[in-house]
Design goal:
460 residues; mainly alpha; Helix Hairpins; two-stranded antiparallel sheet; 19 helices; 1% strand
Amino acid sequence: MPQPKKNLRNLSPNQALILYYAVSIFTGALLLSLPVAATGRPVPFLDALFTATSAQCVTGLSVIDVGARLSTFGQLVLLALIQLGGLGVTTFSVYLFFYLRKGVSTRGRWIIHDTLLHSPVESLRDLVRGIFLLTVAIEGAGAVLLAIAFVPNLGWGRGIYYAIFHSISAFCNAGFSLFHNSLVGYRANGLVNFTIIMLIVLGGIGFLVMRELIDVGRAWRRRSSGRRPRLSLHTKLVLWTTAALIVGGTVLILILENHSALRGMPWSERFWVSFFQSVTARTAGFNTIDLNRFEVPTIFLIMFLMFIGASPGSAGGGIKTTSLALFVAILHSRLKGVSHTNVFRRTIPDEIVTKTLTLVMLAALFLSAASFALLAVQLQGHAFAQSRGAFMDYTFEAVSAFATAGLSLGATAKLTAWGKLIIIALMYVGRVGLLTLAFTIVGRAKAHPVQYGEENIMIG
């Protein structure tokens, strides 16, 4: 057998994930740079690479107006990249292996477990089939609801097409819109707000959580004994943290912007705008109001929500809701002098505690370094007094890219070639996972690492 094929077979799960995403992005960039993908002159390759990365990594940042610049072919390529990114390239691959009855290799099973699972499942075949069918059902329902709102304004053909596109984009937490101002024109439309919000939330809590909720619901309906169906610790953490972030974000935006960006709006519209921005900040990328109208504290709040992101095994990015919940629990335990971490009457394994702390610290350090690099290439030669607003714009852009959120204060259109490459790297790392990339580069620790004599230092 040829050596390259042998090397591919010997890839570790982490290396396979990284390679799959890279190949998909590069293929998408080539297709988007074709003349047939544009309505006018072809999209430059760097811009096509930026757009393909943003779509595959379900981010939503774009240096071009995808609704005006891309042809129907280009938009369909974009939509395919969004769907592949939302479900995961590996999920599609394994589903095809099952469909072709070729089975799944051990490496393929490892990839699926690392990407989607927090506990073993009986059948990967049923898991992937369930993910596929659930996605089609949710996106189909979302498209029907959005069509009710879009068809009267856009006509049957265009309205249905826009409904399908935005339903897939919302459920995959991508945030790409064919409207030039995202969903600002529908900020007072309760049906559009509710549909997009539900699609974002369902796409952001993770496929395993949705499946478990469905299974628990069925068990409740058919239970014959006094034993109550029970949610796993993972699902409890995801649901409680997601609810807390959504409610807290909505209330804070209402309070902070009541006499500013929301002033003059009816109370129902104020609620929808605050609710929508609280949800979409967690990796979705749509907006129903110009974010530049928000006050600085609100922008900082949105940056925090973007950094946290969605939940593990979902279409979203960020450090994930479970990481935030565990980080708070770890901090609470250590401040009380307790050496272990308990959550909902369960003790978290030390390995998970170490991974959580490592992820949060790595994310903060990596994002700080990337933000510094972005500011250096974009604002070098500008005095601070001349670039105060730009400082916030580019920092916001970096957080949005790393968390695959897709929100922007307008800095995307100002990116230089080097700036685009930095944002591309941030989106890619944010999607494949910082720990996945770090373990691939650094490698695992030795079975028996060297340990030296202990010596204390002063801290704090």
